[in-house]
Amino acid sequence: MSYQWDFTPVAANAPLLAEGLANTLKVTAVALCFGLALGLALALMRLSPRRWFALPAGLVIEVFRTTPPLVQLFWFFFALPLIVGIEMTPFLAAAVTFSIQSSAFFAEVFRGGIVSIDRGQWDGALAIGMSRRQALHRIVMPQAVKRMIPAFLERSIELMKTTTLVATIAYADLLYEANDIAQKTFRPLETFTVAALIYFVVIFGFSLLARLWEKRLAVSGEGTVH
Amino acid sequence: MHWDFVSVLSNYDALLAGLVGTLKIFAICLVLGLSFGLAVGLCRYARDGWLYWPATAFVEFFRNTPVLVQILWFFFALPILAPFEISPLAAAALGISLNSAAFSAEIYRGGIQSIDRGQWDGARALGMRYGQAMRRIILPQAIKRMLPALTNRAIEIFKMSTLASAVAYVELLQQGKLIASLNYNPIEAYTTVAVIFFMLLWPMVQLTYFMERRLKRGE
Question: For residue A68, which of A169, B46, B99, B162 is within the disulfide window of CB 3.0 to 4.6 Å?
């Protein structure tokens, strides 16, 4: 193999890669915040005895878990603006798509966690005069959240990997910048290798932190969902 | 707002070609990913460091990088190192298969580990070698427990197959893009593609729910 590796053109474009990484983290953070909030709302609706809440929530969860995220992204970016008549930016499309997509998965984690709490906890809370809302808020959720943490961490890491799809609608995330640099410098091998390594370092770092946290939880003697 | 699905459905031959492309890459990645994953999973289970460490590095790398980055690497970077052309199908199938192998390896390993030690001891006592015990005693029991997780992987592979459109492989989403740009009907084109994917994947998702429930009752 006589190929001469040359990383200097990639190094010269380091600021672009840094900007791309910042944008990747931005989309991830926004989608994570909205995804968690919306996921909790969907889970509570789905657990509700009222069908008007449970059915629509179930539908949203099923549709967004069952269709490919790239199809969702294209739909929100190319189709939705024509239906509602608004300007759609790549960032907005990505934020909306990944918020809803991750909320469908988070909803199932919340639901699994809440359902896993023994009925006796509910009965006890109601017996001492709490309303259902108080029981959920003060008794069930604090126990459930602890069990859900490993599944949340796993989903959040999945979310960060999924955000690379925004490169296909020309949002300047790390992958998009790498593609850009590869074309400008004619050094796709070095550029994509560096991009892959950056992703690996960031995502593997988060994975290790997640494992450390899970171990701590396991030591403190709590079962986990999933 | 005037919906016009006729302009999509009149391109049914393009959608059909896309469907064939989607099913083709799905089948390739399912077979390659799950079988290579078994080999990697067995190495991850091994005590021998020469098997364990390379398998672990492989699993960590492919689980902790986005699959789209892997596909683009195989498409744009690998041809510079390799003396041959890489087609969009080959690049996408490589990325998705290796990614799925890394994830399924952990399913296999977890499944094998979940089998009680006594099963190994019993097989040994009957005079079976390691390979025989694995094949005849351990794997048949472990596979049953792994089935829901493996079916889930299959669903993920199906969804990931859409990423092949990023390297212009002809599959459903790519054909949806084509139809939308030819007929200026992105609403109908992308909605149709989404509905097709939902109809194909929904039965698979229901199957995993069913298997999970049955497994819970059985254990």
Answer: B162
**B183-203 pLDDT, tens per residue?**
989 999 999 999 999 999 999
pLDDT of residue A216: 85
Distance CA B178, CA B189 (A): 9
- Contact A68/B158, CB-based, under 8 Å? yes
What are A163-196's pLDDT values in tens digits? Answer: 999 999 999 999 999 999 999 999 999 999 999 9
Count other C-beta atoms under 10 Å from residue B82's C-beta: 11
How much is the pTM? 0.91
Binary contact (B190, A167; C-beta < 8 A): no
Task: Flag whether residue A164 sits within 8 Å of chain B, measured between CB atoms.
Answer: yes
B139-197 residue pLDDT tens: 999 998 999 999 999 999 999 999 999 999 999 999 999 999 999 899 999 999 999 99
Tally of CB atoms within 10 A around A205? 11
CA-nearest of A36, A34, A56 to A45 is A56
For A41, the token pair is 């709302």
Task: Give the domains, in start order, of chain B with CATH numbers.
Answer: 23-172 (1.10.3720.10)
Residue labelled with tokens 């200026």: B184
Confidence category of residue B215, pLDDT binned at 50, 70, 90: confident
- CATH code of the region A8-219: 1.10.3720.10
What contacts A34, CB < 8 A, 6 or more positions away? Answer: A95, A99, A103
Report domain extents, chain A: 8-219
B127-140: b (≥16 Cβ within 10 Å) or e: ebeeeebbeebbbe
Determine whether the interchain pair A199/B159 forms a contact, defined as Cβ–Cβ distance below 8 Å: no
